[in-house]
Amino acid sequence: MEQNSIKSFIKRKLRPSQAAFHKASPNASSSSYSVKPFGLQLKAFFLCLFASKWKSRKTTASLRPLSESGGAQLPLLFILVATFLSLPLFFNLGNAVADSKSAVPIEATSYSNSKEVLKTLRDDNIKLNHRPERNVSLTSLPGITERTVSPIYRPTPPDFKRGSLVRKEVSFTFDGGSHRGQTAQILHILRQRRVKTTLFLTGQFIQNNPALVRRMLSDGHEIGNHLMDHPHLTTYSKNKRHRRLPHVDRAFLLRQLHQTARIYTKVTGEKLAPIWRAPYGEVNKELRSWAYNAGYMHIGWTTDYKRKESLDSLDWVSDPASRLYRTSTQMKDRILSFGKDSHGLKGGVALMHLGTYRRTEKLASRLGEMIDTLHTRGYRFVKVSTLIKARKKTAAYLPTTDHLRVAQTD
Known about the structure:
The protein is α/β, with parallel strands linked by helices. The chain folds into 2 domains: 123 residues, no CATH class; 249 residues, Glycoside hydrolase/deacetylase (TIM Barrel, Alpha-Beta Barrel), CATH 3.20.20. The chain is 45% helix and 9% strand. Strands 3, 4, 5, 10 and 11 form a 5-stranded parallel β-sheet that branches. It has a two-stranded antiparallel sheet with strand order 1-2. A two-stranded parallel ribbon has the order 6-7. Helix 1 runs antiparallel to helix 3 and helix 15 runs parallel beside helix 16. The longest helix is centred in the N-terminal third of the chain and has 21 residues. The two termini are 69 Å apart.
């Protein structure tokens, strides 16, 4: 009688999908095993236990004290305590079963012997019929290739600001906005001293100065992306915080990057280096992530906050009344004295500009002196990509031109 009541209880608790499965499987043998929810199995076990104890209690007139029975009631007392302690487990299992009903429908799974059941429970707790036997790769889907998928899942690297502190290597980087300014003079100085460096150009600069851009490329310089029209990206100029401006979203940033890249390819026939620098240094982690997924790694400039030193030359400050204004001599000393009591300029990335609104005290007039002084100190001038590859932690983050080609077609 007890077994029949337990079977009817389990049958009532079976879900419709499970009951339909058993009805649709006439060939299933009576010896086949079926995996049920764990909470249901546990409830059935305790029902069997109570049924057997209830039957044994009919033959016993009453509970005798432990002292008279010599401890014969200890097993029953143990069962009562275990039942009381297992009540929270019942509630938790009930909630878990309820959640599973609303999440993924569980179908009954038949097995030929008990070994298959144990193996399934050990490997995957409960392995369902509708689960795929192997993981499906995104690249197996039509129209998706490894080149398309790989940039999306690449972790965002930190803002690159300095290379190795062991090698005596430094990079003098130049940003080019809308006008050329002293570009020709700077390129002449670099060529005379056989210095190869990195220049970040806007799309407007490339459009307005195609001959200078081709000269940069022929001299062996590295060209990075500086967006199309040198826009503000964050609220730093207003509140000194790098909060993204309302109109700056992922589509806006990618459009700025891709337009510049297309113009550069049209002018030179080559691809931009997979690096970029935000105008005005206005960037945050979100912006860097969007650009990096499109194939561009962000490059800043070296700053030592503890010593309050920076390799920002401040040549962009043209107003002599500004507290940030520096003469050409002061700018030269600012660069050469960086890190005097620590690592010096090892791995340093200096920020300079091709264009300027200054009429006098231009940095280009002191550029040759700075290069000659650092040469005598044993420094070697390199591109930013060389500094990135010199450090193991950053070398793995450097994208390739393949990512740029795929990003431009998105």
